[in-house]
């Protein structure tokens, strides 16, 4: 991740008075894919918030006389599973789980990453040790670090949140440190120092706000990864346990009914795919929109 | 160049030490008493104490760590709490399957990725470009465990062309290759998508550069212009992406093995995590992380070899 994403003072002043936020948003709206992504995320949030109003049958409610119904059969929009539970209901309660787990693990990861990154970027003495810790955490490929933490804490959805947060820390710390290092060298920071501003003031009021652009992009992309990893871990039996309507766990449950009820594993997968896709394209779009030096190439 | 290799090797040793310490400590502080896992619920207190003494669990933690480290250096990763089998042996019997899966997937990813990306760049804005770009966007969004499940549903359950799972035949037999097709596509797709994306943008950038224009003006044939002059420089960022991706691929092996019931390191690890069989978790996690950092080192060296401008000072 390049560190030059931070909006620098020169660009901010050479443009007209319109705030950066509005400009960024306008640029984002020019990107059709990103708008599509935003639309999917908006729908996800709406169905997650209003889940109880959108279902006629609870996600855990079994009806053994209506098992393995196909899509649209007997008033079940997306059919039912092997216990006669409504797939639509499970799917939208699953959206709740995905968003909550994704959001909380990204926020926790950001807090950890921001603290390490800002301290490392600002204090040279701490930088060495912090970056070695970050390197160490980076030595575990992909989902492996999350798995190690689950191995340590045991399998549950809460532990998945902890695992994914810790796994998000090194990436965030590296980005923040990069931005902090480049901002620290600028003259206005030196000026602040000579005016007697405290370290805390410089870090929180001047360096932190300048890290927001890359952090927003990282957080958006990371939401996708976090949701994907949650379902991967649940699929493997290391995350949400049955009967929790988590998407990955639903796919795993559907594997045994591939002959008779393939929709049980098809539908949750489509939901995961659309969600990850949405966060990826919005993240991509934000990266382009937040970098004033870059042209949108469609 | 030699200086770079020596320095990186030194860093590698330190990193491997750090990894082993982290993995050891995380299992050490994990709740759950190994003696209870081995002795079972009926074991008496004196039995548990005997097991602890037998395993050396009554010693100070650092002594235990250095003992473990010494064992690893001699190829001894301890013994499974569950089966009593040597962890080294368990890993060695499953390792070939994981290697087969990872290399087949990497091959799929590199071949499809580079070809799709290059063609998309050369024929920019054509339908080939659009379909290749769409593929690379969709490819990174598809969860591999779901893709695998869907491939099984289509090609094994409905069409019955390919086996549902397992990896039991030798890779040099027809059956062995057939068994690898679905798992390799499952695991390779996301990496192929990323490689295609990177190859496309790198190639587009190189094609627009001055030296390519000069070569064109000198009358270099289009074929050699692209595949000889441009490719080498376009490959520099692609090699990095391949290297970074290798980690995701290794992590993905764990999941793909579970989908296709392949008896590899990943399944061993997941079963061990579920059973809280710490020595097996330690051994497998350590092995995968070690492979990852070693491959990263190799990628860095290759990187310096293709681009003489890089010196890593």
List keywords for this structure.
heterodimer; A: MetI-like fold; disordered N terminus; disordered C terminus; B: about 325 residues; mainly alpha; 12 helices; about 80% helix
Measure the end-to-end span of chain A. Answer: 21 Å
Give the overall average pLDDT of chain B. Answer: 85
Total number of strands of chain B: 0
Fraction of residues in helix of chain A: 55-70%
Q: Which secondary-structure class do the elements of chain B indicate?
A: mainly alpha
Oligomer kind: heterodimer
Inertia-based shape of chain B: globular
Number of helices of chain A: 12
Can you tell me the CATH class of chain A? Mainly Alpha
What would your notes on this structure say?
The complex is a heterodimer of chains A (298) and B (313). Chain A is an all-alpha fold and 298 residues long. Chain A is built from twelve helices and no strands. In chain A, helix 7 (157-184) packs across helix 9 (199-210). Chain A is elongated. Chain B is 78% helix and 0% strand. Chain B has twelve helices and no strands. The longest helix of chain B is centred in the last third of the chain and has 38 residues, at 222-259. Chain B is globular and about 85 Å long. The model of chain B has no long low-confidence stretch (mean pLDDT 85). The chains are: A mainly alpha (298), B mainly alpha (313). Chains A and B meet through helix 5, helix 6, helix 10, helix 11 and helix 12 of A and helix 1, helix 6, helix 7, helix 10 and helix 11 of B.
Task: Describe what is shown at a glance.
The complex is a heterodimer of chains A (298) and B (313). With 298 residues, chain A is mostly helical. Chain A has helices at 9-14, 20-29, 32-49, 87-122, 124-138, 144-153, 157-184, 187-194, 199-210, 212-235, 247-254, 263-290.
Layout of strands and helices, then pairs:
The complex is a heterodimer of chains A (298) and B (313).
Chain A (H helix, E strand, L loop, with lengths): L8 H6 L5 H10 L2 H18 L37 H36 L1 H15 L5 H10 L3 H28 L2 H8 L4 H12 L1 H24 L11 H8 L8 H28 L8
Chain B lengths: L1 H28 L4 H6 L5 H11 L5 H13 L13 H36 L4 H15 L2 H15 L15 H34 L2 H8 L4 H38 L5 H11 L2 H29 L7
Helix pairs in contact in B: 1-4, 1-12, 5-6, 5-8, 5-10, 5-12, 6-8, 7-8, 7-10, 8-10, 10-11, 10-12, 11-12
